[in-house]
Each structure stands twice: as C-alpha cells, then as structure tokens.
Design goal:
Blueprint: H1 3-13, E1 28-32, E2 35-38, E3 43-46, H2 49-52, H3 61-73, H4 84-96, E4 102-106, H5 109-124, E5 128-132, H6 141-145, E6 162-165, H7 175-193, E7 197-202, E8 205-206, E9 212-213, H8 218-228, E10 232-236, H9 250-253, E11 260-263, E12 274-278, H10 280-283, H11 298-313, H12 316-337, E13 342-348, E14 351-356, H13 361-377, E15 380-381, E16 383-385, E17 391-394, H14 402-430, H15 438-444, H16 455-461
Parallel strand pairs: 3-15, 5-6, 5-7, 7-10, 10-11
Antiparallel strand pairs: 1-2, 2-3, 4-12, 8-9, 11-12, 13-14, 14-17, 16-17
Helix pairs in contact: 3-11, 4-11, 7-8, 12-14, 13-14
Bound molecules: 4'-deoxy-4'-aminopyridoxal-5'-phosphate.
The site of 4'-deoxy-4'-aminopyridoxal-5'-phosphate (PMP) has 16 residues, from helix 5.
C-alpha cells in the first residue's frame, strides 16, 4: 500500500484523535535490529524504537524465534490454568529485582500503572494520589487522572483525589533549587492531606514530559517524606526500565527503592506485556481474586524471557550507558555550536532529549517537526516529546552501533546547519544585508561564524571527530 492509501484508511476509520509523524510518512513494513524498512525499500536507522519499546532490536532473531516457538506450541488458554512461561518469568524478574519478589502480569503500561494505583489504595485504605506536573502515566481513567501533561488527559471527568506538585525542573533553574521547590510542595500536600493519600507516582525520567531526569537525591528525599505519612512510592519505569538508562531500573540508579515498580514496553521487545511488582508486604494486600485474560499469556511471557536473556547476555545496560555517553557528548557539542537552536541536552543512558528554542517553544515545535522530516529523508527516525513538543527524542534500540550514532550526528548537523543558515539569511535580509558582527559569533559559542558551516565539517577541517 502507498502511504496515501494507509493515511486515507486511518482518516476514514480511526477515531479523530489519531495522529502520525511526518508530512510524508513512510509505511514501515519490516525491521531488523536497529533498522526498519518502508514499502519502497528505503532503510531507516531507528533512533526512537517505538518510544523505548524495541530496546533489544526489531525482530531480534533470538527473541522472534522464542515468540514463534511458543506461538506454534501453545498460544493461550486462560491464566487460571497452569502454564510454564509466566511462572518462569515471575521467578526470573524476582531474581533480577530482588526488592520486588511479587509480580502481576497485564498487557500494557496503562494497565500496569492502573493496577499499581489500585494496589496502593488497597494497601493503605486511602484514596488520593500525588503526581508531578507534566507527567504521563497512561490512558485509562485513573492513569489519565494522575497524568499531568494536559494533552494526554483525555477523560473529561478525572478522579479528583489527585494532588499535582511541580516537577523538579524548570528551564534555566538550578536542579537542586527545582528539587527543593518540588519537595516543599510535597511536604505541604502531605501536611494538608497526607492521611488521605495512598501513593505518589513518578517517572524516574519523565519521557513524554521532555526527558526530565529527577535530580540527584530528589527521589530518596521524597521517599523519606512519604514514609513519614505512610504514603507509598510507585516508580513508573515503563519507558526507563530494562537497561535503557544504564541499569535495569532507573529508580535504583537514581538512589531510591520504591514500594511498587511498573513495567511494560521493553520487557516485551515489541510484543505487548505489562507488569507491576511490589515488596512482599505491599503485594499481600492484593488478596482477592484478580486476573487478566491475556496477562502473562504464554507467548508474551516466553518472549519476555528471551528479552531478559538477551539483555543479560549482551550486557545491554552497560552498552546503553557507554553509547548514551557518546551520543550525549555529540549532542552537547552540537548544542555549543548551535546555541540559538539547541537550548538544552538532557537525559541518561540512551534516553536523551534536545530541546529546541526553549525561549520560543512554538517556533521550537515547528523546527522540531522540520528536523524530524529532514532526518527521516536522510534515513534516520528520531522522536519528539516535551510539553511544547519541541524536544528531539533519542531512545534507539540499545543494539545500535557507534557508527550509527556518528552517522546520525552527521545528518543532524547537516539539517541544523541548513536551518541555521536560513535563519542567518533571514536576519541579514531583515537588517538590510548587514553581515553578522563578531559579537554574534561569540554568542554562538563556536569557533567559526555561527551556523555558516555545519559543525562536523568544521571539526573535520580541524582534524577532529565527534566522540
Ligand atoms: N507510563 C509511561 C511513562 C509511558 O511513557 C507510557 C506510554 N508512553 C505509559 C505509561 C502508558 O503505556 P501504554 O501506552 O503501554 O498503555
């Protein structure tokens, strides 16, 4: 099918909420590790991985083989009958995450968070929740209620027992100051309503909120405050979990042990699965019959076991840290060269974001769309997120190669260089063909005239290479 045909069918039959990236979107028909191919045979290097999903690569042979083997043997009966894969997966997760010996399997991130929130209510016998502004936790009614990002709050009648506190981030503000402000708001809410609050839910790195890493010490201090009021901490590890940030759980990496963790996306490597896991004490409160038709089905569970085997065998967390450091360094250097365009680079491991025109987010959003389109035309799929949709998102399959990162940075440099040249031309035209002054060059932070030459070609001229 042509892209036009697919768009026409989606327009005709999907709900009007459905969107797609790109003015000229490709139809993706196959994938292999860090690559996807469209219907016309064009190959793209995927730097978005379906928002962190295919961390282990598209159609990874070892994982696809496990899926197919199980699909040929036994697909599903009911989770009330005994089958092996989900039992083995539960045991495996408990070994990998010993703080959380008990797990409940479901089918998506939203369902995992919904289950975790309900578990917290059962455990504390309280109704309320605390969440951060600009968070995203899912699409069910309760999870949209604890979602701070307005564009994802689809339910017009959200649960009204949710207290939002400012996330510990503001562009240009010192992270520790932002943390203090957020923690002081947390303390106020706890003082006022602590007796009615079951849990606080947090993404260790806000993904859709624009790759906002919780500052040093923030989560541990929040946990101490919460404990004082008997309030649980839920870490939403749906984007961060299973190695992307450099460890299996970003919450542990950021120095906290939550009471409940939720997972989905990367655990299934492209096959739907969700789960929430808890301490023995908290899990004991889910002691009434509860089951999911497909939660822990043999095909998803066998796939997840193969995903975990691959993550361990290939040491993907270490790889994410190593390659993430290289990618971040490259983006940072580009930011120094294009300071008008790139306001900030942030993130951890292979979960990185670059914000465009923070001071003018509407312009940033338009330029972000242009960068995405031009990068796609050059063979690279990157994502976007952020409150104003002006943050480039880099969260590739962790199996990506160093050469892919270099090639992507080169393409990004060419795209940003083109945009910067246009901006300078427009400025010059507006100022009556006035050439940039040395002061402009200094403000650009680069060694040459700002944006006149792409950054990497300058580097090459200097005999240097981006790391
Ligand atoms: N939590 C986070 C942090 C997410 O990023 C998402 C999805 N982007 C969800 C929850 C919801 O997951 P799902 O789409 O699988 O329901």
């Amino acid at each position: 099918m042509t892209p036009e045909e697919v768009v026409a069918l989606r327009k005709a039959h999907f709900f009007p909420c459905t969107q797609h990236f790109y003015r000229n979107p490709p139809v993706l028909v196959s994938g292999s590790m860090q690559h996807v191919t469209d219907g016309e045979g064009r190959v793209y290097t995927d730097f978005f991985a379906g928002v962190s999903v295919v961390a282990t690569g598209h159609c990874n042979p070892a994982i696809a083989e496990a899926t197919v083997r199980q699909a040929r043997r036994l697909q599903h009966t009911t989770t009330i009958y005994l089958t092996e894969p989900s039992a083995l997966l539960a045991e495996r997760l408990a070994k990998l995450l010993p703080a959380y010996p008990r797990v409940f399997f479901c089918n998506s991130g939203s369902e995992a968070n919904e289950g975790a929130l309900v578990l917290a209510r059962r455990h504390t016998k309280r109704r309320g929740f605390i969440s951060l502004t600009e968070s995203l936790h899912g699409r069910t009614s309760l999870t949209t209620s604890v979602t701070g990002l307005s564009m994802w709050r689809t339910d017009p009648f959200p649960d009204d027992h949710v207290y939002f506190i400012p996330r510990p981030y503001e562009f240009g503000l010192d992270p520790q100051e932002a943390a203090e402000r957020s923690l002081s708001a947390l303390e106020d809410v706890l003082n006022e309503a602590g007796d009615n609050i079951a849990a606080m839910i947090v993404e260790p790195i806000q993904g859709n909120g624009g790759m906002i890493v919780m500052p040093d010490g923030y989560l541990a201090r929040a946990k101490t405050l919460l404990e004082r009021y008997g309030v649980l901490l839920i870490a939403d590890e749906i984007q961060t979990g299973f190695g992307r940030t450099g460890q299996l759980l970003a919450s542990r990496q950021l120095g906290v042990q939550p009471d409940i963790v939720t997972m989905a996306k990367a655990l299934g490597g492209g096959i739907p699965i969700g789960a929430f896991a808890a301490t023995e004490e908290v899990a004991a409160s889910l002691n009434v019959p509860s089951a999911s038709t497909f939660g822990g089905n043999p095909v998803s569970a066998a796939t997840a076991l193969a995903v975990l085997d691959y993550i361990e065998a290939e040491r993907l967390p270490e790889r994410a840290e190593r390659l993430g450091t290289a990618l971040k360094r490259g983006l940072e250097r580009m930011r120094a060269y294009y300071p008008h365009l790139l306001s900030e680079v942030r993130g951890l491991g292979l979960m990185l974001g670059a914000e465009l025109y923070a001071g003018d987010p509407a312009r940033g959003a338009a330029v972000t769309d242009r960068v995405l389109e031009e990068m796609k035309d050059r063979g690279f799929l990157i994502g976007k997120n952020g409150v104003s949709r002006n943050v480039l998102a880099f969260q590739p399959p962790i199996v990506i190669e160093p050469g892919d990162i270099e090639a992507m940075l080169e393409a990004l440099d060419a795209v940003l260089g083109g945009i910067e040249q246009e901006r300078l031309k427009e400025e010059e035209a507006a100022e009556g063909a006035k050439t940039p002054t040395p002061a402009d060059d200094v403000s650009a932070g680069g060694s040459g005239p700002a944006g006149k030459e792409p950054f990497l070609s300058q580097e090459a001229a200097n005999g240097g290479r981006p790391e």
